[in-house]
C-alpha cells in the first residue's frame, strides 16, 4: 500500500506545522471579517451610532496593539503550550463576553479580548512558530501556516451566518467561545506539547546565534522603508471591509455586495499562498515584499471608477492575492533579515504596528465618509498610498547590504 508522503517542510515537524495552521485559522474569531457580521445587531442592540461603534472597535484594537508590545515577547520566553493557553482563554472569554454583553462597555471589553487573543496573539504565535521551527524551506512552511487565514475566511462567515439564522447573534458568539475553549484550544495544546522551549531548545537555524535584538531592528533605517509595505494590505482591507455597507451604497450596489462575493477573496488568498511560498524560497522574502502589493493596487485601480456588479469580484480576488502573498512574505521576512533568536520580540513589534493600523483604518475612512469625500477619490488615494509603499520597499531592498 502506498503511504501518504507529507511535503518535506512539513515532515520536519508535522505537529507544529498543523499547530501553526490552526493558530492562524483560529485567529479568525477575532478578525474584522467575522466581527463585522455582527455590526448591525450590536449597533441596534446598544443604540450605537456608526461613529461610536467604530470608536469602540478601534480603541479596543489600539489597546490590543499596546498590550502585544508588552506580551508578544513571551513567545521567546514561555513554553509554546503555556502562551497558547493564555491566548486561547482570552479569545474564548471575549466571545462569551460579547454574547452576554449588557452594556456598551462590555462590548468594548469583548472586542479587546477577541482582538488581542485572536487577531493579535494567535496570529503572532502561529506565524512565529512557522518562522522559528522550520529552517528548511521556510517560505513554504510559512505559506502553509498562513493558509489558515483563507481557511477561516471560507468557513467561519458561513458558520456564523447559519448560527445567527438558527439562534441569535448572542448565541452565535457564545457558540464561538465554546468552539475555541472546548475544541480548538485542546487540539492546540496537544500539538504543541512536544515543542522545544524557545530559550533552551536547540536552534534550527545558524543565524539564530547572531539574530538581532528588537532594539537593533528599530535602529535599522531599512526597517522603516519596508514598514509601509507590510501594513498597507491589512490597513486597506480593514478600512474597506469595515465600511463595506457604506461603500456599497455609494457605488449603487446592494449592502451585501462584498459579503456575497467574499469567496473571491478567499480563493485569491489561498491561490497566492500556494505560489508565494516556493517563490520566497527562490527569490527571498525581501524581494517578494513590493511584488506582493501589485495585485491589490490593480484591484484598487479597478474599484475606484467601477460601478458594475462584477467590480467587487475583481477587487476582492486581486486583494486576496496580495493578502496571501503578504502573509507568506512577512512570516519569512523577519527571520530572513534579522535571524530567529529574538523573532518573538521582533514580530510582536510588527504585529502591534499592524494591529494599530487596523485600529486606525476604520476611523480614517469613517472621517472621509463623514466629510462626504467622493468614493472614487477615497479609493484612488488608497491606490496611490499602495504604490508609494511598494516603491519605498523597493528602495529599502536596494539599500540593503
**Which CATH class is shown?**
Mainly Alpha
Overall residue-averaged pLDDT value: 86
State the helix count.
21
Q: Globular, elongated, flat, extended or rod-shaped: what is the shape? A: globular
User: What low-confidence regions span 5 or more consecutive residues with pLDDT below 50?
Assistant: 201-209
CATH topology: Growth Hormone, Chain: A
Distance between the termini: 51 Å
Beta-strand percent range? under 5%
Number of domains: 1
Largest sheet: none
CATH architecture: Up-down Bundle
Overall strand count: 0
Radius of gyration: 20 Å
Order of H and E elements:
HHHHHHHHHHHHHHHHHHHHH
Assigned CATH superfamily:
MFS general substrate transporter like domains
What does the model show?
The chain is mainly alpha-helical. The protein is built from 21 helices and no strands. It has one domain (14-199, 212-399): Growth Hormone, Chain: A (Up-down Bundle), CATH 1.20.1250. It has helices at 8-11, 14-26, 32-35, 39-46, 50-71, 74-77, 80-99, 104-133, 138-146, 148-166, 169-192, 214-218, 221-242, 244-251, 257-260, 262-283, 285-292, 294-303, 311-338, 343-370, 375-399.
Amino acid at each position: 500500500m502506498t503511504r501518504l508522503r507529507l511535503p518535506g517542510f512539513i515532515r520536519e515537524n508535522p505537529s507544529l506545522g498543523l499547530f501553526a495552521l490552526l493558530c492562524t485559522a483560529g485567529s479568525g474569531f477575532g478578525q474584522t471579517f467575522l466581527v463585522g457580521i455582527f455590526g448591525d445587531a450590536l449597533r441596534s442592540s446598544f443604540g450605537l451610532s456608526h461613529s461610536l461603534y467604530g470608536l469602540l472597535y478601534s480603541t479596543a484594537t489600539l489597546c490590543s496593539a499596546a498590550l502585544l508590545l508588552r506580551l508578544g515577547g513571551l513567545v521567546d520566553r514561555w513554553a509554546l503550550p503555556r502562551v497558547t493557553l493564555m491566548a486561547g482563554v482570552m479569545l474564548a472569554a471575549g466571545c462569551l463576553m460579547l454574547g452576554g454583553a449588557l452594556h456598551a462597555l462590555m462590548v468594548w471589553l469583548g472586542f479587546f479580548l477577541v482582538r488581542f487573543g485572536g487577531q493579535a496573539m494567535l496570529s503572532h504565535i502561529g506565524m512565529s512558530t512557522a518562522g522559528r521551527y522550520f529552517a528548511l524551506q521556510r517560505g513554504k512552511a510559512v505559506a502553509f501556516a498562513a493558509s489558515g487565514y483563507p481557511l477561516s475566511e471560507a468557513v467561519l462567515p458561513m458558520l456564523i451566518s447559519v448560527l445567527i439564522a438558527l439562534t441569535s447573534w448572542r448565541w452565535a458568539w457564545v457558540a464561538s467561545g465554546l468552539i475555541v475553549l472546548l475544541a480548538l484550544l485542546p487540539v492546540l495544546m496537544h500539538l504543541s506539547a512536544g515543542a522545544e522551549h524557545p530559550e533552551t531548545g536547540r536552534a534550527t537555524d545558524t543565524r539564530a546565534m547572531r539574530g538581532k535584538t528588537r532594539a537593533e531592528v528599530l535602529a535599522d533605517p531599512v526597517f522603516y522603508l519596508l514598514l509601509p509595505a507590510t501594513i498597507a494590505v491589512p490597513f486597506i482591507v480593514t478600512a474597506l471591509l469595515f465600511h463595506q455597507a457604506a461603500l456599497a451604497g455609494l457605488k449603487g450596489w446592494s449592502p451585501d455586495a462584498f459579503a456575497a462575493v467574499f469567496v473571491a477573496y478567499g480563493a485569491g488568498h489561498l491561490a497566492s499562498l500556494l505560489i508565494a511560498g516556493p517563490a520566497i524560497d527562490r527569490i527571498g522574502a525581501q524581494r517578494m515584499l513590493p511584488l506582493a502589493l501589485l495585485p491589490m493596487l490593480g484591484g484598487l485601480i479597478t474599484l475606484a471608477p467601477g460601478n458594475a456588479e462584477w467590480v467587487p469580484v475583481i477587487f476582492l480576488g486581486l486583494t486576496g492575492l496580495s493578502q496571501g502573498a503578504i502573509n507568506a512574505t512577512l512570516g519569512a521576512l523577519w527571520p530572513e533579515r534579522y535571524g530567529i533568536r529574538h523573532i518573538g520580540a521582533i514580530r510582536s513589534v510588527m504585529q502591534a504596528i499592524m494591529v494599530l493600523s487596523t485600529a486606525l483604518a476604520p476611523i480614517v475612512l469613517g472621517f472621509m465618509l463623514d466629510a462626504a469625500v467622493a468614493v472614487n477619490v477615497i479609493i484612488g488615494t488608497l491606490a496611490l498610498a499602495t504604490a508609494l509603499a511598494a516603491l519605498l520597499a523597493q528602495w529599502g531592498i536596494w539599500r540593503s547590504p
